[in-house]
Amino acid sequence: MEDIEDLLAGGVGGAPPGFRLPLNAVGINPKTNKSKRSSSKQDQITASNRDSLAPPSLKIPGTQTIYIKTFGCSHNQSDSEYMAGQLTAFGYALTEVPEDADLWLINTCTVKSPSQSAMSTLITRGRSGKKPLVIAGCVPQGSRDLKELEGVSVVGVQQIDRVVEIVEETLKGHEVRLLTRKTLPALDLPKVRRNNFIEILPINVGCLGACTYCKTKHARGHLGSYTVDSLVERVRTVISEGVKEIWLSSEDTGAYGRDIGVNLPILLNAIVKELPSDQSTMLRIGMTNPPFILEHLKEIAAVLRHPCVYTFLHVPVQSGSDSVLTAMNREYTASEFRTVVDTLTELVPGMQIATDIICGFPGETDEDFSQTVELIKDYKFPQVHISQFYPRPGTPAAKMKKVQSKIVKQRSRELTSVFEAFAPYTGMEGREERIWITEVATDGIHLVGHTKGYVQVLVTGPESMLGTSAMARITSVGRWSVFGEVIETFSYENRETKSREETKPPCSSTVSTCETCTCSGESCGEERSGEACNISGNISRQDDRKGESNREEKAIQEEVVVPRSSVANWGFIDKALVCGVFVSSLTILVLLISIASRVLMRQ
């Protein structure tokens, strides 16, 4: 089964209107590029015979069509969206049909062997079709001497802001290699989202771990966090652009900020303050390993209880055996993982937790595996992502004594059977849930919504419902999702009337919901977030109708009432303009009087 954040996406299209990079910003001048060549193996541009074979049309930058293929996690998907945004901003077109493209950009994943094998197959296919290739992502960054990368351009994970010049030089017939790590790419680069309603927001790169099986650390490196201010500003921007879900993404969300003197709860509390009070935009916290959230469990639980945050968390355990966890160098025990699950389940109503398991890690005994099975049976997780162990070149685990392949496959099948026997959504039928609808299902018939616990709900309705929130009655349940019918949609309040909410009374410990407090849906402060504003994903029908009635009445009032203005509410610019008009009028009056007096004196 795929990892929880595995995304296999094709090309994406669209361009930010009116945005075009200046020509001298991307180094299209061959002479400039030659003068800047480095003798380093990491960063170099080399000529090839393709230059003389390239059609004349390929000499004009920004007139070609690009095919983008993405393997791997949501962080990779975000990188692809940023690269797509820069390319379209410069004029390049994007296509989902590989044969129609002038160049292929392949963003790779090094976590598992199958994804890297798929990359190799795609490279071979591109070469057969005589397509210029640019390979991005973790594979070239972590395995730069890989044979499959010979003769193609490569771009490192921290060089995505130079994708335009790399594509340009590759189309000219040059081989470009940019792998040197530098500062983090800016968050405000042009971006073309795969889903217009979902922003994948990388909060840091790399991690603090040293798992013996992990190749990603070789590619993404040590922890590097974006500042709280830069992330909050990005959140404000994407909300203004109509984004309805924000996914915080990284190699380990829980480690955020430890390199810059902050931590994850500080960031989360800063972000939820920016979320609209009408719950029109939801926050999803990304994958976090157990060690770095153990000390912040109560603070994270408070954020998860916030009405604008999904009560869902992906916490990989990988094994239920302490001896295997030690061999993996995971830096926690099975008991500590249980503490994370038990605490969050106790403190957060409707909490949903997903986890990962690696079957057949080197040295895993039958007893070790039975402890893993027992752990999964104890919690009956709604999502378990089961992988067989794949030795990744250059990792310590690759040198360990392997478990026989047939045993690994047998254990994987056994654990999958145990997991698929669970019925996690039994009891939901007939229940009414608020859902947030963001995409079309793969069957092309249903729309996909999620409850506050991030349970997938399939409903029917027009595509105009995308980006909206609704109440749905669950009509049937399946193994992987549930089906529902929309019984009511929510109309979001006018953002311009938000200032009127500031007259509401402040939160107190006696407030049961956020309907009557100043921090409605934004934040109850770092201490109270999720305590005074504790709203579970299951909204009662009676309370919702009352609240909706009040909201509709308030919205009507806000449409017809014209607020009175007063000088006390004027801003600096307003006052400056009035003063300017007054001074100008006074000057004109003085000039008129002066002219009149002179005329009279002459007479």
What does it look like?
- The chain contains 17 helices and 20 strands.
- The chain is α/β, with parallel strands linked by helices and 603 residues long.
- Helix 8 (228-240) runs parallel beside helix 9 (264-272).
- It is globular, with a radius of gyration of 28 Å.
- Mean pLDDT is 78; it is low at 1-43, 45-54 and 494-569.
How many strand segments?
A: 20
- The average pLDDT value, as a whole number, equals 78
Helical amount: 25-40%
Largest sheet, spatial ordering of strands: 1-7-6-5-4-2-3
- Measured between the Cα atoms of the first and last residue, the distance is 101 Å
Figure out the total of helices: 17
Largest sheet geometry: 7 strands, mixed
Strand content: 15-25%
Rough outline: globular
Give a brief description:
This protein has 603 residues and is of the alpha/beta class. It has 17 helices and 20 strands.
List the helices and strands and how they pair.
Layout: H1 30-35, E1 43-47, H2 50-53, E2 65-70, H3 74-90, E3 93-95, E4 103-108, H4 113-128, E5 133-137, H5 138-142, E6 153-155, H6 163-171, E7 174-178, E8 198-202, E9 204-205, H7 216-220, E10 224-225, H8 228-240, E11 245-249, H9 264-272, E12 282-284, H10 297-304, E13 312-314, H11 322-328, H12 334-347, E14 352-359, H13 366-379, E15 383-388, H14 405-420, E16 432-440, E17 447-450, E18 456-459, E19 468-477, E20 482-489, H15 525-528, H16 541-560, H17 572-602
Parallel strand pairs: 2-3, 2-4, 4-5, 5-6, 6-7, 8-11, 11-12, 13-14, 14-15, 18-20
Antiparallel strand pairs: 1-7, 9-10, 16-17, 16-19, 17-18, 19-20
